[in-house]
Amino acid sequence: MLFSKAAILNGTVSLCVCTQEQLEERRAEIHKRIQERLKDLEELKQAVESLKSSACREREESHLIFTQLIRSIQQKQAEVTALITAKEKAAVSQAEERMEQVEQEITELKRRDAEMEQLSKTEDHIHFLQNCQSLCAPPESGYLPSVTVNTDVTFEAVRKAVSELKGKLEDIWKREFERITEKVNEVCLWEPKNRAELLQCKSVFTGAFH
Q: Is the pTM of this model over 0.70?
């Protein structure tokens, strides 16, 4: 059975003729396309739900990891502070002990000097001879060994080391953030068929940082 239809194409009248068989084939193609698109629609819905679920989960996990990272940095900060404080107390205690010993030695030397001055003025030769040798001899405990004191001692080198660590961490963070961003950009609801689709997929994510 023949069916005809007048159609205007490019300003001219053209006659489109098809058979029942061709019509049925065309309808079958349309039905198949409908089923394919329904399947695509269902898959897209599932993909969106999966994407949302994964995004929620990864936000929470990322937040937890960054919280742990912050705590780790804070712990190291506390450790450095404790190290400086412990070194300060130990050094001050050592210096105070040394100062006490120096002060005792100064007191002893002044006492000897006073006795020597008094002995030098005596006119009693016997008394002079009896005491001169003991006063001129070094003390039994000996004198304190000399030390070279660093009068400009500071913890500045520690601050420089921490500053260098900060710079290194910032460099690492910059590189790693670029890698993380790339991993985020790789997430796509469908497989890109060409570079244009790939760039379009990535632009959805990179646009959020502009």
A: no
